[in-house]
Amino acid sequence: MTNPVILTGLRANNDLQIGNYFGAMLPIIDMAKSRSHDYQVNMFIPDLHSFTTPIDHSELQAQILHNARLYAAAGLPLDDDNIHLYRQSYVPAHSELTWILDCFTGFGEMSRMTQFKDKSGKLGDSQISVGLFNYPVLMAADILLYDAKYVPVGDDQTQHLEFARDIAERMNNRFGELFVVPEPVKAQHEFFGKEQGLRIMDLVNPTKKMSKSDETGKGVIFLGDEPATAAKKIMSATTDDKASVNYNPAEQPGISNLLDILALLRGKPVAEVASQYAGMDRYGDFKKIVADEMQKFLIDLQKSYDTYDSATIVAKLEASERAMNEQAGATLLRVQRAVGLRPPKEYDEI
Ligand code: ATP
Ligand code: MG
């Protein structure tokens, strides 16, 4: 019996920011390390997802390797055979299954996806691609190809996970048992158990989430930022005129965000850090503490990053991709047979 599969990916459309690191990467790595005895852990770089919105394609190749290397730098064990790290486009079954699933997906069903409405609302007409429209189908393929049961999802992806379940059930009803249906969102939350609510805010506009595709990047700390540049971003973070450090995200979003960041950097509960600095009236001094801590964090992470050469990373990717092509290929063949693209199984046996 094979182990149940946990699957997760982090889009490589830009350098990752500290929100991605603390909100996604670290918890994923912790989870992979603690679960890999009983589960197969699939961590993939969704390179095909990276240009559903426009990107600079001359950067993509380097970005993909950079992200893989960041996983290693952040502590992902490369020598664990139950943890797979692979590039989506190196397993062509993702694209092939997407096309098949596309033809069983309703236009209306995709049109209701709130992520599409949000993201397309920010783009000009000529920039809204069909890829952006149907990326939930690619995401369903990412999951279903490996019979994945557990997929950690943030709030913005829950509708897409529900779609993956719907399309799996629809195909199963029509063609027999083709897919393992991933667990529903509630069960996902129970399984991963982590508080899903972490939101680091943009430093310039602390009522907005920090996000790697932000246009200016001024309020965003990227993992590849020069430590001194990151420190400067902290020093010029937007605060308020209350002149008193307090954890109160509604009234003092900027200061509260800096407290959240400091707590994460120190690996301490925010309440503890907040009480340590409560009432401090010189924001400049407080920012300096956060800036120094941030600088230390980036120096360490980047040092760790430099200890991995690309050859080591590529070797891990290629080994995982061989294994994944086998698994995904078997699922794809099951589907191709079911829809009539390949002869049914009995023919082989004649
Ligand atoms: P984009 O601008 O391309 O949407 P993003 O920075 O919002 O990029 P996503 O690719 O949407 O990142 O999300 C990747 C993961 O990082 C998700 O699990 C998401 O919950 C987490 N994440 C993103 N931003 C933050 C943040 N500011 N604080 C905490 N977690 C975050
Ligand atoms: Mg996002």
How would you portray this structure in words?
With 350 residues, this protein is mainly α. It has helices at 18-35, 57-73, 93-102, 107-111, 114-121, 130-144, 158-175, 185-192, 227-235, 253-266, 270-277, 283-306, 310-339, 345-349; strands spanning 5-9, 40-45, 83-87, 148-150. Strands 3-2-1-4 form a four-stranded parallel β-sheet. The longest helix has 30 residues, at 310-339. The two termini are 28 Å apart. Bound molecules: adenosine-5'-triphosphate and magnesium ion (MG).
Compact description:
With 350 residues, the chain is mainly α.
Quickly list its features.
binds adenosine-5'-triphosphate, four-stranded parallel beta sheet, Rossmann fold, binds magnesium ion, 2 domains, 54% helix, mainly alpha, 350 residues
Count the E strands: 4
Q: DSSP helix count?
A: 14
| Overall shape | globular
CATH topology of the largest domain: Rossmann fold
